[in-house]
Specification:
Layout lengths: L1 E4 L6 H10 L4 E4 L4 H4 L3 H4 L7 E4 L2 E3 L2 H12 L13 H28 L8 H4 L8 H12 L2 H6 L4
Parallel strand pairs: 1-2
Antiparallel strand pairs: 1-3, 3-4
Helix pairs in contact: 1-4
């Protein structure tokens, strides 16, 4: 099994999943963006995006789908909720919520606070106060707990 990865990208999701599950895998770390920085990558993934997971004759390119594939193909694992469990529907909703509702706002924040040239940055995107501010401390605590996990810490050593 081989995962194509770029640091600080969506390929963190399946990399972290592989580490949490303790699965053996080969990792190819590439410069970003791989479509232009890694010769031949478009032959592997015509979208030119990361992640790409190759497992035998299967090639997967969506980070959350790769995670679902890993827990179903190589489980059982406590990372997944089984189809016969009452919480399965809620599990799938939460599993895919990041792709459906969170990715676009996150992309705006990253773009206008980190990626754009200084003259095009727009800090207002993250500095405006909204009612959601009251949730930030709990979210920050949860994120801190996730990021303290040994498997996540290992993914951060790979650059």
């Amino acid at each position: 099994m081989k995962l194509f990865h770029c640091f600080n990208s969506r390929s963190l999701r399946p990399l972290w999943c592989l580490e949490e599950m303790g699965l053996e895998y080969e990792l190819e770390v590439m410069p970003f963006p791989p479509r232009s920085e890694r010769e031949g990558y478009l032959d592997i993934n015509p979208l030119g995006t990361v992640p790409t997971l190759i497992d035998g004759n299967r090639t997967l390119t969506e980070s959350t789908g790769i995670c679902q594939y890993l827990v179903e193909q190589y489980g059982p694992t406590t990372l997944a909720v089984r189809q016969d469990e009452p919480e399965y529907g809620a599990y799938l909703n939460w599993l895919y919520r990041s792709d459906a509702t969170f990715t676009f706002p996150l992309a705006l924040v990253l773009r206008y606070t980190r990626l754009e040239p200084e003259e095009r940055k727009n800090p207002q995107i993250v500095e405006d106060y909204t009612i959601s501010e009251r949730y930030k401390p709990n979210t920050a605590r949860y994120l801190e707990a996730l990021m303290s996990r040994p498997a996540f810490q290992k993914t951060q050593q790979i650059k």
